[in-house]
Write a structure and sequence with these properties.
CATH class of the largest domain: Mainly Beta
Distance between the termini: 70 Å
Helix content: under 10%
Structural class: mainly beta
CATH architecture of the largest domain: Sandwich
Order of helices and strands: EEEEEEEEEEEEEEEEEEE
CATH superfamily of the largest domain: Immunoglobulins
Radius of gyration: 23 Å
Number of strands: 19
Strand content: over 45%
Length: about 280
């Protein structure tokens, strides 16, 4: 009797860019924010693969940890800050031919009784390919076992509901420059958040020989969020290849800024003097 074993590797990704692709699926935009009178948003899904694929869509809850990773929140662990009770998605399942696209609608069922605050859940997209072991056709060896490793990727984007006049600010603290064994440099720091809403933006590190000199970009991390369940997030920025001869007697300036299309994009800035 033939014995088939299929190992499914599921990747859950919560990154944020203007467009978010993983596996065979591209999702835009990268996050949804319902505030003020906004009640409806559209998501555009594109099948980047070569096969017709069905994607299921659901709502899940996660908590961010200080290192930027996420912990699933299951069942009764979900708290009052989850947004799933206010969100409705249509359709919940999409079948796309290769390179075909479709719009998915997300509705916020906001009521006048919603307490002031920020609520967040994640819209989760998962492939439902009919995976089958391959390479066994025509064989009669009853002792042969087929092992097939198939990556099944999931994409998760945040959906945020805001009620009331919410504010947040941030400070950059504990900046430290470290040299790796390979000779490259990393810059570590903490984002300290205060207020009653989350923050999201890009981090850029620049080097200046003195306060008035022209800056040189030495490191960038895009899509850095810090959500309301944490007040501090630790970040490590890999710096571009700069040897120790050039990275001294100057200033490293780090700026945390919202994406360019967001009003009041500046969030926080700090400088580190190095000798």
């Amino acid at each position: 009797m033939k014995c088939f074993i299929t190992a499914i590797l599921t990747g859950l990704l919560l990154l944020s860019e203007s467009g978010f692709a993983q596996g065979d699926l591209l999702v835009t935009p990268n996050r949804l924010i319902f505030s003020g009178n906004k009640f409806k948003e559209e998501l555009n899904l594109v099948n980047l693969g070569n096969d017709t694929t069905t994607f299921s869509i659901s709502l899940k809850n996660f908590r961010m940890l200080e290192n930027g990773s996420f912990k699933p929140v299951e069942g009764n662990e979900a708290d009052s800050s989850s947004a799933d009770k206010y969100l409705r998605i249509f359709p919940r399942k999409v079948t796309l031919a290769p390179h075909e696209s479709q719009v998915v609608f997300v509705q916020c069922r906001r009521t006048s009784e919603i307490p002031e605050g920020e609520y967040r859940s994640h819209i989760y997209f998962r492939s439902e390919k009919n995976y089958k072991p391959v390479g066994m056709e025509g064989r009669s060896d009853t002792t042969l076992m087929s092992v097939q490793l198939i990556p099944v990727y999931g994409i998760s984007i945040p959906a945020i509901v805001r009620s009331g006049n919410l504010k947040a600010s941030a400070l950059l603290e504990n900046m430290k420059l470290d040299q790796t064994l390979s000779g490259n440099y990393n810059l570590s720091l903490d984002i300290i958040r205060s207020g009653d809403m989350s923050l999201f933006g890009n981090i850029k590190a620049e080097f200046l020989t003195d306060p008035g000199s022209k800056s040189t970009e030495i490191g960038v991390i895009q899509g850095v969020g810090i959500y309301t369940e944490i007040n501090k997030r630790h970040i490590t920025i890999p710096l571009k290849s700069i040897d120790s001869e050039h990275l001294h007697n100057g200033i490293i300036r780090v700026t945390y800024r919202s994406p360019d299309n967001v009003k009041d994009s500046f969030i926080a800035q700090k400088e580190l003097v190095i000798q």
